[in-house]
């Protein structure tokens, strides 16, 4: 009996040792794999996930602004904010609006929807207006105004149109992407152009034609009288010659 008891004790000890040696391997096999390192954000991926921004994506690709923005995100400390118009927003534009723009104007339109700073929804309440966008022209950067109220409603005004900021497709540093129901139309491209002034008349005179600019209306003094005086002088000479001829004929008869 004693020998049998010792045998059981030895067997139990070996079993416990085997379990102790195999336990770490089992735990390692069941442990989840470490998460892959998170890469820089990609605006195209964010818009694709949103599912209703295909027109804006095509416009960004055609102007190469998607590649440029994704590259800028890699080394940005301030971050970026993108206002992404929905497909319905582009459908609401007047027919031919995009096709009427030059290539550079299309670039400016896309850049007008990008701000070179990260904005959370809460930070819009303290935004200093006007807000500079990435678009610019001969008069400087294209700007827009962003206002927010205590209820969290955010609105954007361009001077041509206004719209509300919708849901956040992404709002994590360094990239924020917000949906908008209207295309942001910059005043520099779509605003009312001032009327052009009338071109000056020849010789610097106004449209009335008065003054020295109209030689046809005012001939030089005495110019109209010159032909009349010449004709009168010629008539006097002819009359003198006729009288001389008469006198000569009368003398020949004497």
From TrEMBL:
Endpoints of the signal sequence: 1-20
Subcellular location: Cell membrane
One GO cellular component, as annotated: plasma membrane
Membrane-topology descriptor: Lipid-anchor; GPI-anchor
Region of interest (Disordered), residue spans: 191-228
Domain FAS1: 40-184
Keywords: Cell membrane, Glycoprotein, GPI-anchor, Lipoprotein, Membrane, Proteoglycan, Signal
One Pfam family here: Fasciclin
Low complexity compositional bias, start-end: 213-228
InterPro entries tied to this protein: FAS1_dom_sf, FAS1_domain, FLA_A
Family label: Belongs to the fasciclin-like AGP family.
The protein's name: FAS1 domain-containing protein
Chief site of localization: membrane
Lineage start: Eukaryota, Viridiplantae, Streptophyta, Embryophyta, Tracheophyta
Entry's Gene Ontology BP terms: plant-type secondary cell wall biogenesis
UniProt KW Glycoprotein keyword: yes
Role, per record: May be a cell surface adhesion protein.
PROSITE patterns: FAS1 (PS50213)
Organism, as annotated: Eragrostis curvula
PANTHER family in alphabetical order: FASCICLIN-LIKE ARABINOGALACTAN PROTEIN, OS05G0563550 PROTEIN
